[in-house]
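Section handout 9: paired folding examples.
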Amino acid sequence: MLINVAQLLRASIGSVKDCEIKQVIDITGDGVDSLVQGNVRLMRTNRSILVKGALETDVELTCSRCLSPFRRSLKMNIEDEYYPTTDVDTGVAIAVPDEPGCFTIDGNHILDLTEAVRQYALLAIPMKPLCKENCAGLCPFCGQNFNRGPCGCPPRVADPRWSELSKLKKEKGK
């Protein structure tokens, strides 16, 4: 996701450039590429290029309950600042802010959105992804996926210490 911003760096403050993004990247680092598409707007500020946009992609995840792989669509609103490392007219090095993780524009005035998009996508992935909202999970004894049917394990006996609560639940259900 490389964008040449040399002209925008020469432009006046407040100038904008709209870009359509449609590129394949490896978001999760597992070797599976995902198509990222959407639109971003680049705006020249007094010291950087501000990138704002809406992107979407889909990633392959593993269900937290049944461990089955599935694909999930992700929508991301990105907003980041990219600082130039060299002056566009003279080629002299420019000091970038002393902030950990700040994004920079390389010496050839190319802005690379790949890492920012990857980070935003990782943040958009749920902490406990589910293949479907009512995923039944796995049998804790034999490992059968309950989404595909019941297992052959004998029924579990409830702990007798919970019997009083079970009675309350039955009464409440009536």
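Moving on to protein 2 of 2.
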Amino acid sequence: MTVGEKQSGTGTPPDVLDGPFSTRQLLRIDEALRLADQGTGLVFSVFVGGLDEPIRQHAERLHRQLAEPDKSVLIAVSPNQRQLEIITGRHARKRIPDTYARLAALSMVAAFGGGDLAGGIINGLDQLASHAGKG
């Protein structure tokens, strides 16, 4: 899981506790990621931070950098830009078609709009994993 932006010029991530989540929220997100991975056989990741324009292409670049992009699902959220992208790899897309990813995104956006960034991410992970089913 990646939470936070890379610090300008250093190439190293900041302390995740400087990000938008409390320790309890980070633990809940980590648990949701673990359950999604174990329950589906896919690899779920979350990126929260600034995304360069064009947003979709930046999220796709992040997805390609994952260890197993074909079976990975990336949720990229930029709260300050009010942007959300869900990127699925070739194998993952067979189990989570774009239609279902959009439904999960709508649910996440509703939670974000209510001020619940962590809850939206956790709910989105659960919805995506539930649809993917066992791998």
